[in-house]
Design goal:
Layout lengths: L1 H23 L18 E7 L6 H9 L6 E7 L6 H7 L3 E3 L12 H9 L2 H4 L8 E5 L3 E3 L3 H11 L4 E5 L1 E2 L4 H16 L3 H4 L14 E5 H6 L12 H11 L4 E5 L4 E3 L5 H15 L5 H15 L4 H8 L2 H24 L10 H21 L2 E3 L2 E3 L7 E3 L1
Parallel strand pairs: 1-2, 1-4, 2-3, 6-9, 7-10
Antiparallel strand pairs: 4-8, 5-10, 6-8, 11-12, 12-13
Length: 389
């Protein structure tokens, strides 16, 4: 009992120390008050959109408020049936329609859409394409300073690829229960000191919601054809840049953009089961071990006081209750830092149990070829891996 309490307490103290260090460290944060370079080169914002009627107008409205002096917006319609193209045109974007035809063998949906969008004749039908591209998801809302600050930082740091983690918008009950657990897992498992270390190619990661690239480097790595079969095309693209010797930068950008990834329990489950196993490089061992760790650190603490009480173990009861106080003190503090609803910290065990379910179901679905998203089902590792559901 006491050993378990000590191990759990040490983990949560370590979490608090790491969050505190990250909060104090400004090196990997990008904010609206960051410097802006004069004479920024032209930038094309490329938005892949498949049935994004509820998102595309507010996404474009946020872009129209941007203070970047020299950019245009291109929306690539990926076979939408809900009027996305018309709404995008009404929002002032140039639109490439289509995408309803079968995806070529060996391709995933999003890489194929972006490959179509970034051909020179698509980017600039009557002239030279912009030297920089920003891949932006339709559910992203950018701060007016986002484009100019990210673009300036990429140029100042002399990198060809810049991505960032924005603020997760959580509105519904299940979002507030599940997203902190999954988001915490991703952030905890990716130290930006290592991610941004050019000698740590094994630590590369990116966030497909916001990826800024220098177009000549993007062409050199083979555009999205280099990641045509990747479920996590964002991470794959970052690795492709590093493999070709290009420097990348990944930053915390919570003040510069936000994203409400999923709006329902079914979307949450479908989206994360698509991504988690791929994010662990299709290792069965990692999610199994990680599940055991999550159960030990996030679920077991709530059962220890009950066990101690039943046994009449006064010392164990006091220790286990102290651990629970520590856990919720750290969680309250972290929820304040990340702007999350503090009331939902009390549902942490439920979020942890659902995270374990997501991890294991992601393995199952991927291995059975049941990974699906937006009406397409993917069988990982096969040439004919995409089919319409």
């Amino acid at each position: 009992m006491l050993v378990a309490c000590a191990l759990i307490a040490l983990f949560w103290v370590a979490v608090a120390l790491k969050v505190g260090r990250s909060k104090a460290e400004a090196r990997w944060r990008l904010a609206p008050d960051a410097p802006v370079l004069a004479g920024l080169p032209r930038l094309t914002v490329v938005i892949p959109a498949r049935n994004e009627a509820t998102n595309i107008a507010p996404c474009l409205a946020a872009l129209r408020a941007s203070d970047h002096p020299n950019f245009d917006v291109l929306v690539i319609d990926d076979g939408s049936t809900d009027g996305t193209s018309g709404l995008a045109r009404a929002g002032g974007a140039r639109v490439i329609s289509g995408g309803g035809e079968p995806i070529p063998p060996g391709w995933k949906g999003k890489p194929w859409a972006l490959e179509r969008a970034t051909r020179p004749d698509a980017l600039a039908p009557t002239g030279e394409p912009a030297p920089w591209l920003l891949f932006l998801d339709a559910d992203v809302r950018v701060h007016p300073a986002a484009l100019s600050r990210a673009h300036s930082r990429a140029i100042a740091d002399n990198v060809a690829f810049l991505s960032g983690f924005g603020r997760l918008e959580m509105v519904g009950f299940w979002e507030k229960v599940i997203q902190p657990s999954v988001g915490g897992l991703i952030i905890a498992g990716n130290d930006l000191d290592k991610v941004n270390d050019p000698d740590r190619a094994d630590a590369v990661i990116a966030n497909g919601q916001f990826i800024l690239v220098r177009r000549d480097a993007y062409d050199t790595v083979g555009r999205h054809a280099s990641v045509k079969a990747d479920i996590l095309d964002d991470v794959g693209l970052a690795r492709a840049f590093v493999a070709k010797g290009f420097a990348i930068r990944v930053l915390f950008m919570r003040e510069l953009f936000s994203c409400r990834m999923y709006t329902s329990f079914s979307e949450l489950w479908q989206g994360w089961t698509k991504n988690l196993y791929a994010g662990m490089r299709y290792s069965v061992v990692v999610p199994v071990v990680l599940s055991q760790f999550v159960l030990f650190e996030f679920v077991l603490p709530y059962f220890l006081p009950i066990v101690a009480f039943v046994r009449g173990d006064a010392v164990g009861l006091a220790a286990s209750l102290g651990v629970l106080l520590l856990i919720h003190a750290v969680r309250l503090w972290m929820d304040g830092i990340f702007g999350q609803d503090r009331r939902f910290g009390l549902l942490q065990p439920l979020g942890a149990l659902l995270l374990v379910g997501l991890l294991l179901d992601s393995v199952r679905r991927s291995r059975l070829g049941q990974v699906s998203w937006k009406g397409r089902t993917y069988s990982v590792g096969r040439a004919d891996e995409t089919r319409e559901a």
